[in-house]
Design goal:
alpha/beta, 7-stranded parallel beta sheet, globular, 2 domains
């Protein structure tokens, strides 16, 4: 018969001490500056192991603004901001917001294109042995649209959400087992690129530019195997960035202008990807 061993108050106090916690259960310790390398590794490994377990080898990355909504969302947002301005008509911030949401109404078409592309590419046979899996930043706007299109097709799709003060949660169309959350932009961007076999960039702001130029730089410098890069909405991209002038000034080669193509529809984006892999079949890799 086992006798109950009496534990002294001193021993109980030691067991409650911070130093006595198991390291991997000590949140304060794991959140310290010294443990940043460990947190970076964890953020790299968790999605890597999950996607490998599910056999995800090839993805198509879709970037674009979180501010581009579908028509009902766009109209609701505009009505909401106008109502706020009516209550405070002299507020310069609200005046600016009204102008912004009204201007973004014309971008609704890109939401529809992203959704259509997400559906089409999820159904297409770009490679003989696998499907391309849609991956986005997991948020609203263009990200939601692409995930939604894949969801419409009944296909698994990926969302790589980032923790930000102003960021909404993940959109509802991401496959639950592939809905990841990141703290570090750098590791998140690594996961965008690691399995990418195509990149599609819709109109967007600083975040979209950051992600696009990251991939362009990796391909230009040979750090990433060449892949189709499609910019959707030629009017936007040629108005915002003068790529030919970069070449004219000598800061990129004229050949670098061939690293990307323009498209306007979901079907056109998919055709660029399919044509690319007919021309460069070895770029598929393993």
């Amino acid at each position: 018969m086992n006798k109950k061993i009496k534990v002294s108050k001193e021993v109980l106090a030691l067991r409650r001490a911070k130093a006595y916690r198991k390291a991997y259960l000590d949140q304060e310790f794991l959140s310290s500056d010294a443990m940043r390398p460990v947190r970076l590794q964890l953020e790299l490994q968790k999605p890597e192991m999950t996607l490998a377990e599910h056999g995800v080898k090839s993805t198509v990355v879709v970037f674009g603004s979180a501010r581009i909504w579908d028509k009902p969302q766009s109209e609701d947002r505009a009505a909401e901001v106008r109502a706020m301005l009516r209550k405070d008509p002299k507020n310069p911030i609200l005046k600016s917001k009204v102008a912004s949401v009204e201007g973004l109404k014309k971008s609704v078409k890109y939401y529809d294109v992203a959704r259509d592309f997400g559906r089409l590419v999820s159904q297409a046979d770009v490679f003989k042995d696998r499907k391309l899996v849609v991956v986005t930043g997991g948020g609203p706007g263009i990200m939601e649209a692409a995930n939604r299109g894949a969801h419409d097709a009944g296909a698994k799709n990926i969302g790589l959400n980032i923790t930000l003060d102003m960021e909404q949660g993940p959109n509802p169309y991401i496959s639950p087992e592939f809905c990841f959350r990141f703290h570090y932009f750098a590791i998140r961007k690594m996961h965008f690129v690691m399995r990418a076999r195509a990149l599609v960039a819709f109109p967007g702001g600083f975040g979209t530019m950051d992600e696009l130029f990251e991939v362009l730089t990796l391909v230009q410098t040979g750090k990433k195997t060449r892949l189709p890069i499609i910019l959707v909405g030629k009017d936007y991209w040629t108005d915002v960035i003068n790529f030919p002038n970069m070449a004219k000034w000598g800061y990129i080669a004229k050949e670098d202008l061939k690293l990307f193509r323009y498209a306007e529809t979901g079907a056109e984006i998919l055709k660029h990807i399919q044509d690319f892999y007919k021309t460069y079949p070895l770029a598929n890799g393993k």
